[in-house]
Amino acid sequence: MSSRRSTLFALACVLETLPCSVACSGDVQSGPSGGAGTTEGGSSSHAGSGSAAAGASAKAGAGGAPVGTSGAAQGGASGGDPVGASGAAQGGASAGQAGADEAGAAGVAGTGGASGCSGLSQTRSARTGKSAGFSGDYEDDYYPLYSHACTIVADCSAACVTAGGTQTSCAASECVDSTPDYCLPPTYWFGFDQLLTEGNTQESSATLIMVNNPYRDQLLASNFQFEIPSGAKILGISFSINEAAGSENMVADYSVRAMVNSTAVGLDRGHTKAWSTTFHPEVYGGASDLWGTTWSVDDVNGAGFGISLTPLYLDTAGNERAYVDFIRATVTYDTCK
Hints:
It contains 5 helices and 15 strands. The chain has helices spanning about 5-15, 140, 155-165, 165-170, 295-300, and strands spanning about 30, 80-85, 90, 120-125, 130, 175, 180-185, 205-210, 220, 235-245, 250-260, 265, 280-285, 305-315, 320-335.
């Protein structure tokens, strides 16, 4: 048996098993240009009794009308000047409604003032992660493939499909010449529950063992649960992926695509540089980047909106690991009529 296959077989035998469902919080909604005047996630952020928080340094005018989406405030009869570094506007003696607007547990903040209908944004984290190539249980279905006896490759491919692999991915299975011969399946992403929190460690990350194999598994992150208002115009989309590699110059992007209805669309926004071994938020897209396609409110609010990340192994032998710790998406839009 070759040294590479012995190493990979040993690694597969000791991998920890992790569940495959994700549910995250910590979402943010911001005012125009995502700038001052927004309140990011957290619990119960107040502007003070008898005042109301508006977005983007807006001044509450006389008899001001409610603006923006949920969390927007209404000005008082004698609006005051913006106060504080956050740019929240404070009303006069009879300003606004009693008490202050409050960012809830989901971290949703108010949007801009009466003229703040453009450059609005919401940020959400992925609540679902999965492998594109394997739907079975990692411990009960995937591990046993490494001890499956074989005489030809077709034996391994068939066992892989039965375990939950796709026909395309399982075609990359191998039958290793040994005593006895055994199967070497393709590698898949696992540990999706680790996308729940941002821990900045290998242990708190979804993981893919990288090998030189024709099949490259995709990490599919979706279910961001955006609440873009009906009639809004989508201006741009970005994804921030907290990622790292096990070693320098061993892992890079093969493909990074946005998804609608769980299907990749538009342009590939993958970067050409190798992944760092230090966890960091790698940003794909931007506030004015539509990824070469058009977007509706239903597209981004749907559960199938997300991102498909496919890493590339830069070596020809051995193995390494790719890690993804947390994924956020930001949608920039306007509600101007």
